Amino acid sequence: MKTSDFYYDLPKELIAQDPLEDRSASRLMHLNKETGEYEHGHFRDILKYLKPGDCLVINDTKVIPARLYGSKVGTDAAIEILLLKRRENDIWETLVKPGKKCKVGTVISFGDGILTGEVVDIVDEGNRLIQFHYDGIFEEILDQLGEMPLPPYITHKLQDKNRYQTVYAKHEGSAAAPTAGLHFTKELLQQVQDAGVKIAHVTLHVGLGTFRPVKVEDVTQHHMHSEFYVVEEDQAKLINDTKAAGGRVIAVGTTSCRTLESATGEDGILKAGSGWTEIFIYPGYRFKMIDGLITNFHLPESTLVMLVSALAGKEHIMAAYEEAVREKYRFFSFGDAMMIL
After folding, report:
1. Percent of the chain at pLDDT above 70?
2. Which one of 24, 169, 213, 249 is least enclosed by Cβ atoms within 10 Å?
């Protein structure tokens, strides 16, 4: 299986640069994963495809304003950093630009010294471990100095940073939004529950591994970055009970999907707990928990296109993506949605 098997041609103008005024007004393509047939509608039409007794599983992670701009103490050279993972004692794993200016021992000042960081180690792929020093509460300082870490294909400035959060975002820790959830409004979630559909939540803090390009031609040689997840006891029970009663488990987003598939045993039972996952789902994978998926349209040759191809079949996905291009759907983080069921 080659990475190039998952390529499709995407005109640049179809990459959504701004979120829609009304979250639930985005378009929805429903893809039948068995037949490959698709229907066009709007996101608020998801109720048409859900049944009483189904369970939607959302990822309640919250994006932190993880992009910081500072200057190197001593030379005033401009430095940009992206917070990836909190380690311990105010040490974070970060992505630093330009990396060559940030050797171990380098001190970076942010916001005229409100926050300083010292590079204490260089780890995988040149990522820097930075020890931060400050007075007060780190999250408040980050809120003051940081920017939302929009993906590189979005060039417009985000006017309202809440639009890169889901309406149910709760646990801070992500470097990117679980974008399938951006389509939900509180009203639509209420309508889903009123229709007899359960809503369960898990947490997976999204790292940049999601967006990292696959650089090897042999798909099986690609290594995923680890991301931290939590499945609470009562939520595991809700999801397991759904399956036991014959209901369908539908993941909202590839992050919810990867959490469920990581925490489910070979016996098909979801286990409560927390941990790090490096699960990489591509065609040939046998799903243990999910029956369906709500997701956005993903980058060509990305691990996410491979994941949806594992669920619906590569031919069905590639045909649906070509149709989405023809129909001028909006792509990627602020784009339209697909429901695979």
Report:
1. 99
2. 213
296: helix, strand or coil: strand
d(CA 84, CA 3): 26
**Which tokens in the block code for residue 270?**
């979801």
pLDDT, tens digit, for every residue of 107-149? 999 999 999 999 999 998 899 999 999 999 999 999 999 999 9
Q: List the structure tokens of 165.
A: 């959060």
DSSP H helical segments within the chain, as ranges? 138-145, 186-194, 233-244, 254-263, 303-312, 314-326
CA 109 and chain centroid, separation: 30
- In the chain, the amino acid numbered 253 is G
pLDDT level of residue 152 (50, 70, 90 thresholds): confident
DSSP string, 58-108: EE-EEE---EEEEEETTT--EEEEEEEEE-STTEEEEEEESGGG--TT-EE
127 contacts: CB under 8 Å, gap ≥ 6: 84, 93, 94, 95, 96
Residue 191, judged by CB atoms within 10 A of its CB (0-12, 13-18, 19+), counts as middle
Close Cβ partners of 73 (under 8 Å, ≥ 6 residues apart) = 106, 107, 108, 109, 116
CA separation for the pair 310, 325 (Å, rounded):
21
Measured CA distances, 220 to 91, 96, 258, 277, 282 (Å): 32, 28, 17, 17, 9
Kind of pairing between the strands at 249-252 and 292-296: parallel
Cα(199)–Cα(168) distance, integer angstroms: 11
Return the beta strands (E) in 103-245 as ranges: 107-110, 115-122, 128-134, 171-174, 198-204, 227-231
DSSP H or E stretch at residue 12: none
Phi, psi of 275 (to 5 degrees): 170, -170
Alpha carbon distance, N-terminus to C-terminus of the chain: 24
